[in-house]
Amino acid sequence: MQILNPNLMELMFVFSKLNNWESKLQQLKLSTIENWIHSKAIKIEPKHLLRPRYWFKKTNKYKRYLYELSKMEVIPITYRPKHINDRSEFGHYEIDLVVGAGKSKSILTLVERMTRMAFAIKLENKTMKYTNEKLRELIKKESIKIKSITKDNGLEFNLLHEVTKEINASLYACNTYASCEKGSNENFNGLLRRALPKKTSFEKLENDNINSILDQINKMPRKLLNYNSAQQLYEAFC
Fold first, then answer.
1. Which residues form the Integrase catalytic domain (predicted)?
2. Tell me: the pLDDT tens digits for 97-108?
């Protein structure tokens, strides 16, 4: 007697229950029956299975709340003005996180789009309120004048509109899975990763260490800036 594949046995049971063709089912291949199901030639419901399984639509009220929260006071990047997109005006920033090994500690990075001047501060965690607190601290410490910030869709930035509202700045959000839309910050993060490669622990990293790395990057002549440094251009506008 031929021992049938368990999956085939279940499909045979389903098909026989639906169509009463039990005597002919053993001649069918598993792929044939699967094709019928996938093409919806036969309709399968959980109750028809040999071992019924029921599927439920996954809902998560908390995630839905965070999603709705993230849209508050946020403008899609599609509607970001031309003078920001072409970098013709000073004072528009991009924000991101660089995460250390274990994802427990991270670095908040803020890059000015026109000059590529970068600022950064260490985060002990990635909660929304704490991220806002550290951003406020960074802005105050460095006396940063911000006209707009462009963010990605990370949960840590879902309350960022609270900060931008305080400083009277616009907040733009990249499209989902399109971090390339804040390329200035992504490029800076790559430069930062030269000194802090992936899988580097940030546990013992201090802000003094971060500032030392920032100083090297900001003072580095760059072809993109006609061999000026980001700091030289930034200081010309301050």
1. 77-238
2. 999 988 789 999
